[in-house]
Amino acid sequence: MECYTSDSCDSDSREQKTLDLAGQSLESGVLSSELQSIVDEKDCAKSYEIILLYNNRLRTLPEIMNRFSNLKILDVSNNQLTVLPDVLKSCPLTTLIAKHNRLTNESLPKCFYSAKTTLRELNLSGNQLTNFPEQALEIPSLKYLYLGGNKIVSIPKDIWKLSSLQILSIGLETKSWMYQTP
User: Fold this and answer.
1) DSSP label of 179
2) Within a 13 Å sphere around the CA of 67, how many CA atoms are in the beta-carbon half?
3) How far apart are CA 81 and CA 102, in angstroms?
4) Bridge partner residues of 75 (DSSP)
5) Are 50 and 19 within 8 A, CB to CB?
6) How far is CA 72 from CA 43, 68, 120, 122, 180, in A?
7) Whole-angstrom Cα distance, residue 135 to residue 143?
8) Residue 19: strand pairing partners
9) Is there a contact between 136 and 116 (Cβ–Cβ < 8 Å)?
10) What is the number of other CB atoms lying within 10 angstroms of the CB of residue 163?
11) Taking the chain, what is the end-to-end CA distance rounded to the nearest angstrom?
12) β-strand 4-5 against 95-97: which pairing, if any?
């Protein structure tokens, strides 16, 4: 299996490097092997800033994801993920897109926030969430939060903690919802 990237590892370009493994029907074990070969053979995992894994058959993300220490954007949409691992906290993510999976409130990391967290966009649309993910309230840098297509029926009172939030997209099963800043 060949990995397509936007740049080669030995390039001294400052452009973001992308690992595009989208739409290849990858399962978790195969992905783990692919990522291990990148870490071992190419020794350039640190150069990747974007990893595209959407439209595959992933049920879990491998631990080796923590070796991509400069990962800023991760798109794992349209898979079969039932859990988001804590390993993602070790990456300086700015964007995490995990829409249309099988994520529940219990399968989210206990905390999205860490010393490296600069998360500005979190998309958990189209999953199986029944409650607003309280972990999101701990991300001071969050600007965009997408939760539509879940079964969330209320917004926590502490939503004001997200002082940087510009967009909150949530499909409530109630007739209408409106939030005004104090």
Assistant:
1) -
2) 16
3) 6
4) 52, 97
5) yes
6) 18, 9, 10, 12, 31
7) 14
8) 5, 51
9) no
10) 8
11) 53
12) unpaired
